[in-house]
């Protein structure tokens, strides 16, 4: 828990950072980072769908290289879309032990 003085000091520091360098403040903003992950995931899904269309087109026109290219695009886009996602299936309440730095 932070005291009121510490909260005010952190607010002053954050406002000063936003005033001095708005680009850095936006980059350090957690919501802006989440938006880029969300956008990357959506674009990856669109590319996966495009790769699937290429794969099916290669099957229909009987051009194996087009199907192979579609499969490669699908897999590459899927990897690119989910590589930075953090999967959490359950929440854990982890206790900090004395060895990890809790001196109390």
Give the topology, please.
Elements lengths: L3 H17 L1 H7 L1 H31 L3 H19 L22
Helix pairs in contact: 1-2, 3-4
Task: From the structure above, extract its key features.
4 helices; rod-shaped; membrane; transmembrane
Description:
This protein has four helices and no strands. By secondary structure, the protein is mostly helical. The protein has one domain (4-83). Helix 1 (4-20) packs across helix 2 and helix 3 runs antiparallel to helix 4. The longest helix is centred in the middle third of the chain and has 31 residues, at 30-60. It is rod-shaped. The two termini are 15 Å apart. Keywords: Membrane, Transmembrane, Transmembrane helix.
Spans of at least 5 consecutive residues whose pLDDT stays below 50 are none
> What Rg do the Cα atoms give?
23 Å
**Pattern of helices and strands:** HHHH
Q: End-to-end span in angstroms? A: 15 Å
Structural class, from secondary structure content? Answer: mainly alpha
Helicity level? over 70%
Number of domain units: 1
Count of helices? 4
Report mean pLDDT, rounded to a whole number.
82
How many beta strands in the DSSP annotation?
Answer: 0
Approximate shape: rod-shaped
| Major sheet description | none
The portion of residues forming beta strands comes to under 5%
């Amino acid at each position: 828990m932070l005291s009121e003085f510490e909260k005010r000091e952190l607010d002053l520091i954050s406002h000063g950072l936003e005033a001095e360098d708005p680009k850095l403040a936006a980059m350090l903003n957690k919501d802006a980072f989440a938006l880029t992950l969300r956008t990357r995931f959506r674009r990856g899904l669109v590319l996966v769908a495009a790769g699937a269309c290429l794969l099916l087109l290669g099957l229909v026109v009987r051009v194996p290289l087009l199907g192979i290219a579609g499969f490669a695009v699908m897999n590459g886009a899927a990897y690119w879309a989910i590589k930075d996602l953090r999967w959490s299936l359950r929440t854990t309440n982890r206790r900090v032990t004395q060895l990890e730095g809790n001196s109390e």
